[in-house]
Specification:
2 copies of one chain form a homodimer. Chain A is an alpha/beta fold. Chain A contains 7 helices and 28 strands. In chain A, a hairpin with a 5-residue loop joins strand 24 and strand 25. In chain A, helix 1 packs across helix 6 and helix 3 packs parallel to helix 6.
Chain lengths: 421, 421
């Protein structure tokens, strides 16, 4: 058997991949912060909202004054002021008084409830709104606290809002903006070179000669690298020439934060990658071969802090190894707090039984469908097509992982699926 | 009751939103194509693979010659050539002959099977590989077709590979690259202006005066617009000034493909948006108010082909309306073939019963967890916090939609969840 058949278990491969250091940090504007990874946790510097706010358009009142407002005549109050959006009413709401108030405005002192405008009528004239100096009739009882958002009701001063290592989602920007954090300290995006190897590979704009095949993995990998939050640098195509490959790998590792090589990770006579990676600075090759399918012939090395991955050349194998192993490694390199390398809450039932060796972890290309005849459950059809095929990657909705330790799944067994996005 | 309480059903709102025309097209490079939307379907211009390829490193042989290779001496063949990656063997494999072949190389004429190198030994000397002029011993039977990928086995000439309106995923680039499509015709990214309105709104870098609140929605919306494949243009903050708001809206609509306004979509005295949108060119306001929670006070208008959405100002409401209504509209504007406005295969069980009015569609902020005590099922906890809160958006994993027509869900009822990404 060849050397790389000393396969390491998938979990061990993941541990080694996630044990990469993080890149450095930089400061970006709020506008640029989405998708970036927070360096430090965000604690609320003050309560949010900072004061009592009205949740409705209406009138700030004393709840005691309107305790009998459900009677036939309601309760008539004197409007002594108005709090439009963006301003405050500096006076005090006394007995029998009201202040008209906009949604989001600060509730004046003395008032302890807001009556929605829908439950009022002007006493002297028409129109929904009553200005200062006029009177308003309240027609419904509202208890103390009604339609008032209390200080700190949303977030309290000192609350941990966003953890370190969080990749910022659009909604997270609301917290940063609300607390005035317009310069955000985030991890740099790792710069990852992508390199295609193999004398049979020609650029996609060329018509392949007999025996040649167009490079597709470099483009797919670059898109995947960027989807993982890194910057992809196209390294080009290198033929099966050991010296040229070694020089190119050393240069790309030197110029970037990491390198992903496509092809050449197997052990044929022209598969030079493992040999070349053996020439990398310490610690060098960490493993060669993972007990998974597809994607077994994967090489992982480190040149100092910089990860170098030799990916299998087959499109499906490359896709699987990237999604399941390289993506979490790059996220980690980019500072993300990766605790789960296969984060999925999506469960589907396998549409037919599946068997495999116990030790191996398998990744099935699946197409999902909602089965009306099964109470709307989601079922997964495993797509045919070997690891050399691109059709199954295009047709699949995602990948189902069948962990090591399992040798058989019945029809209907639940599997966790990660969607291709 | 106020004017906007003529609520339209959510499904009707979606139909109107999806009835937007598409923006124009442009050509981008393969490197830029991921995330962009294909204008025309891609049909395979030729078979893939175009010829018979070896699936393994080994020897191309005639299967008849090795039909008894499982015997103690195996079967000895004369190696008459080699097909390294990227080249072809132009001769013919005759009786008793073999050609050494690399994975992915074209299988020579005359051969009908490939023997994996693991099941061979050199007859004359050591080492795994045997060069031309030497002999190889085959130790296992392989039938006709073994380890050969047939022409068209992956994709056949004329096959529909990718449909029009497909938003290209990383894996899709493999098809484009393999067929030499390096210039890709895609829809332009729509340019969408985002505008914050309200006299109470101050920029996030300022310390709010009493009664003021920092603008957060403009940043969240810009990030969401870009996650929907469009280009976001920050339009700034406009105070509650009808003339200024009208002029700004008309300018932004003129300069861009669409506009999303935050705040001012309710019916308070300072809520000017609906009035200003009434001044837009035909067809103007399409609806004002959707029967959903949160997000009811949403206005949708069209200025000719250009969509204008007045979003509710509360952060949670804005998030929900964007995800459920504006996102699919923008995807459609950008050419995507949107057939499902709430595409989710993720099902979770509600951790407590939920009731609501029958007609209304609700969106719950949920946090998901895998329950080991329930066979690994995924359960959804509904987060507290009103539509003014940002805490629930940050803590939630996503949104569960409870459709109209349902007034009660039991504890444990399945809901479809879309994750915040």
């Amino acid at each position: 058997m060849a050397d790389w058949l000393k396969l390491i278990p998938a979990d061990q491969a993941r541990s080694m991949l996630l044990d990469v250091p993080q890149v450095g940090v930089e400061t970006v504007t709020l506008r640029e912060a989405v998708g970036r990874v927070l360096v430090a946790p965000l604690f609320a510097p003050h309560d949010l909202p900072p004061a009592r706010l009205s949740a409705m358009d209406g009138y700030a009142v004393r709840s005691d004054d309107i305790a009998r407002a459900s009677g036939p005549d309601g309760e008539v109050l004197a409007v002594i002021g108005a709090v439009p959006a963006g301003s405050v009413f500096t006076g005090q709401v006394g007995g029998g008084q009201a202040v008209s108030i906009a949604t989001g405005a600060v509730v004046p002192d003395g008032a302890d409830a807001v009556v929605m405008v829908e439950f009022t009528t002007p006493v002297d004239g028409a129109g929904a709104y009553v200005g200062p100096g006029a009177r308003v009739r309240v027609k419904k009882v509202f208890p103390a606290g009604a339609n008032i958002v209390q200080p700190g009701e949303d977030l309290r001063a000192g609350d941990a809002i966003l953890p370190a290592g969080r990749r910022l989602r659009p909604g997270d920007l609301a917290a940063l903006a609300s607390f005035g954090i317009v310069d955000v300290t985030v991890f740099r995006r790792p710069r990852i070179a992508v390199l295609a190897t193999g004398s049979e590979i020609c650029p996609p704009h060329q018509t392949p000669l007999p025996g040649q095949v167009r490079d597709s993995n470099q483009y797919v990998l670059a898109a995947q690298v960027e989807a993982a939050g890194a910057i992809a640098i196209l390294g080009g195509i290198v033929a099966d020439d050991s010296d040229l490959l070694r020089a190119t790998v050393l240069r790309l590792v030197d110029e970037n934060d990491g390198l992903v090589l496509s092809g050449g990770s197997s052990v044929g006579p022209k598969d030079l990658t493992a040999g070349v990676l053996g020439a990398l600075p310490s610690p060098g090759v960490m493993f060669h071969g993972i007990d998974i399918r597809p994607g077994k012939p994967t090489v992982f090395a480190r040149a100092g802090n910089r990860p170098v991955v030799g990916m299998p050349g087959y499109p499906t194998s490359s896709m699987v190894v990237f999604e399941a192993f390289v993506r979490p490694m790059l996220e980690r390199l980019g500072g993300e707090n990766v605790t789960d390398t296969w984060p999925t809450m999506l469960r589907a039932r396998l549409s037919r039984a599946y068997g495999k060796p116990t030790s191996r972890e398998d990744f099935l290309r699946v197409r999902l469908s909602v089965r009306a005849d099964r109470d709307g459950e989601v079922w997964a059809d495993v797509l045919p097509g070997g690891s050399a095929a691109i059709s199954n990657v295009i047709l699949a909705d995602g990948l189902a992982r069948v962990p090591a330790g399992i040798d058989h799944l019945d029809e209907g067994a639940p599997v966790g699926v990660r969607l291709f996005l």
